[in-house]
Every structure is written in structure tokens, then in C-alpha cells.
Amino acid sequence: MLEYVALGIGFAFSAGVQPGPLQAFLLSRVAATGWRRTLPASLSPLLSDIPIALVVLLVLGRLPEVGQLVLRAAGGLLLIYLAWSTIRQLNRTSAPSAEARHSAPRTFLQAALVNVLNPNPYLGWALVLGPAAGAAWREQPAWAVALVVAFYGTLVLTLAAFIFLFGTARFLSPRAQRGLVWASGLCLAALGVYQLAVSIPKLGAA
Q1: What DSSP letter does each residue of 76-142 carry, written as one string?
Q2: Tens digits of residue pLDDT in 132-183
């Protein structure tokens, strides 16, 4: 079970600290209304990901085990690519523009909508969380539950910390931002290697 919990925590941390539409929204609300009023928006993935997870799990449930292993291997490659891309563009990382901050939605439901329209949750569930949850469920249903709880618990806490840090210090120092991006990239690389190490031997034996 610990391997699934570690996967959920690591993937959620990387998803939470990388720049994206949801992070831009949170930053905009912190700038406009302060961190206290923005804090509930950290829970928005719990709402937005429900239909995504249901659709992905329904489709994956109809795939044979070999198909799920192929998707899991593809997820490993995706994570390694994201790690490479994250570290490669480290010097280009910057905060969202003023225009993006002031044009972002203002409510919890709108934050959830931003995430629904974001392709990252679909890729994450289709190539990483979905196959891993399916494998965990076949071993022990409680392990799949632990994976999902670890992922969303860590994601919500990471987003809440993001809101608080940007609300109290406005912006992290460039050095701190670089450190977070490096940590995110290394975490993604480790998760990608793990996904490949789990899936490829099973594909060879299938």
C-alpha cells in the first residue's frame, strides 16, 4: 500500500506546484481578495475531478489488463517527459501576467470549471492515477482508496500552502521558486521511472 500512497503524494505535490490554469486563478484571487477568501478554492479539485475520474475509470474498467499496463507505461513516459520539460524551462518560469490575474474567475464553482477545462486532470487520470488505481483495486480495494485519498489530500494541502504563501509574502523569492520547480521535476522523474519499472516487466510476461 505504501507504494500507492507515495505515488499519490508525489504526483499531487508536482501537480500542485507547477504553473497552470488553476494556479493562475488562485494567484488572481489572492491578489484581488486576499488569501483567507481564496483558501476555499483549494478544495475545487475535489469537485471538478469527480466526473473526470468516473469517466476514466469506467473506460479503463473495460480494457484488458494488457491495455491498462500499456497505459501505465505511457504514463511513466509522460511523467519523465514532464520532468524533463519542467527542468528544461526552469529559467523561463514566471508568475502569471497581470492581465491573467485580473481576468480570472472569482468563485469556487468557477475555479472548479477552470480545472474541468484544464487538460492536466484528464491526462493525470488517464495515464497515471487511473491505471494505478485499477492495479491497486485488483490487489486490495483499500489500497486504491488510500491512493486517491493521498493524492487529493496532498493536492488540497499543497494548493492551500500556495495560497497562504503568496498571500502573506506576495511572491516567493526567485530562489524558492526555482527550488520548488526542481523538486517538482525530480519527483516527476522518480514517479515516471517507477511506473515504467512496474509495468514493463508485466508487459513482457503477458
Answers
A1: HHHHHHHHHHHHHTGGG--PPPHHHHHHS--SHHHHHHHHHT-HHHHHHIIIIIHHHHHHHHHH-HH
A2: 998 899 899 999 999 999 999 999 999 999 889 877 765 566 777 677 677 7
Phi, psi at residue 107, to the nearest 5°?
A: -125, 165
Buried b (16+ CB within 10 A) or exposed e, 84-106: eebbeeeeeeebbeeeebeebee
Pull the grid cell for residue 191. Answer: 514517479
Distance CA(52)–CA(133), nearest Å, equals 14
Q: Phi and psi dihedrals of 168, rounded to 5?
A: -95, -35
Q: How confident is the model at residue 101, as a pLDDT? A: 43
Indicate the number of domains in the chain.
1
The C-alpha cell at 200 is 514493463
- Give the C-alpha separation, 145 to 134, whole Å: 10
pLDDT in tens, 9-65: 999 998 888 777 788 778 767 766 778 888 989 999 998 888 888 888 888 767 777
pTM reported for the whole predicted model: 0.71
Q: At what angle do helices 130-139 and 174-205 cross, to 10 degrees?
A: 50
Domain assignment of residue 175, given as a range? 2-205
- Report the distance separating Cα 78 and Cα 82, nearest Å: 6
